[in-house]
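Annotators were shown the component list below and the corresponding predicted structure, then asked to write short factual statements about the assembly.
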Amino acid sequence: MAPQHGKTLNTHISVDTWRSTIILLKRMVQQLEIREVDFDELKRNLEFTASLLEALYTSGTPPSLDADDDLQLRSDVVPVEVRDWLASTFTQRVQPIRQRLEEKPKFRSIVHAVQAGIFVERMFRKAYSTAMPDQPAEVINCLRDLDRWSFDVFSLDAVSSGHSLKTLFIELIIKHHLNSRFKVPISCLMSFLCELERGYSKHTNAYHNHTHAADVTHTVHCLLLRTRVLYWLTELEVLACLFAAAIHDYEHTGNTNNFHINTRSELAMIYNDHSVQESHHVSAAFRLLQDENTNIFINLTRPEWLELRSLVIEMVLGTDMSSHVLQVKAMRSCLQQHESIDKPKALSLILHAADISHPAKPWSLHSRWTPRLMEEFFTQGDKEAEMGLAISPLCDRHNTPVSQSQIAFMEFIVEPTFSLISDMSEKIVIPLIQDTAGPSPTCSRYRGLQWTVADLVSFRSMWMRHTEENKNRWRDKVKNGVSHSDESETQTGQDTA
Ligand SMILES: Nc1ncnc2c1ncn2[C@@H]1O[C@@H]2COP(=O)(O)O[C@H]2[C@H]1O
Ligand SMILES: [Zn+2]
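Structure shown to annotators:
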């Protein structure tokens, strides 16, 4: 078949060009924000991005990402319409719905869009501060530590009267400018977060409750920031990460998946024993968005919505611990074979790491999470005993070696996962530093990138120091004979909290 008349010309814009362009656009917005604008440079940059967009819209073809091209179709051989049909019918990839050609943006409309963006941002900032006018000083104080690994979510929960998830999610959405970028209606956000917190308290779990969701949401933010993976992501991907973290255990029943399967629970029947709880968390959370009063994504375009939904589903399903080994193996082999890193896989690994992160945090936090988790496990053990079932491992309140289980969990699960996150981040971020190594960037966001290598090293030594210290604490307990659940283990965690 003959190649399509000029349609495929210039359609292959490299991933690197797209990435640099996105970085360029973001840099322009930041320069505008801090009012450090060199108008000639701004004009040049806008002209460049406009010509790139023009090339894209003239060709009518979305950016071609080779690594993503499941069917290995060469664009100069297969007509674009056929490629779209094959990709949307025979792969799992969701095709973004393309804007019609007559909707091609003109240079002037891009300038207007930038101006409008700044206006919308200001408007939304105002709306948010009006909606949360009297944040207690203690809440504001607590949130000052938001970028720190040692951020104390228990304190935030106390000072926000049990609303750590709501408070933290709003704060992060504003911090990453996502409320204005995606025009999230404040009333929807408030209602959505009320429902979310309500769902997390449905089963009154000691561990899987809204505080754990707030902790994981904060940790995802902190991981993205500390590893600098944040600079690799689009705003939509950042939104997907925070949302996935916030909903990842929504309506958790306080039992393990195996318990659901063994007791043939309603959820096990619905989801055919596959990632039973995770399937429910993500499905029930998306159901909340079906109501227009709680649909925080009401202003997303259809392609944005589809991309966000697909990312969130993959990330939340990836928190099923039974996929841990596969996930780790796949990413390890990708790094060893110098393959390009698949974003959804990288983000799923980050959410999974955040979900098991408390043993890599300071002892004052880890020692408060462990007894909560153990209590939840023991409650399941009590139920199993009552039902005449075998008690699951780690669920027997009279005979569980808590300290040893924590040491093993850190050595075999937490440390390998965090080591992988550190390696993966280096592979992702170092090329980004090289990309921006040219003329010294003026805005603070990109100045941060120059620190990346040192930051990655310090991130690695930070989590290693905490896991080492926590393991030593548990080892001391074993030495002192306080290592079993029936030796008041679950209280010992509170001593330094
Ligand atoms: N300190 C820990 N010891 C044992 N298991 C843990 C620990 N922390 C997290 N987990 C498990 O890891 C799982 C991660 O997903 P969940 O939050 O659903 O449930 C968590 C627990 O089952
Ligand atoms: Zn969790």
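Statements collected:
1. Residues 15-105 form one domain.
2. DSSP finds 22 helices and no strands in the chain.
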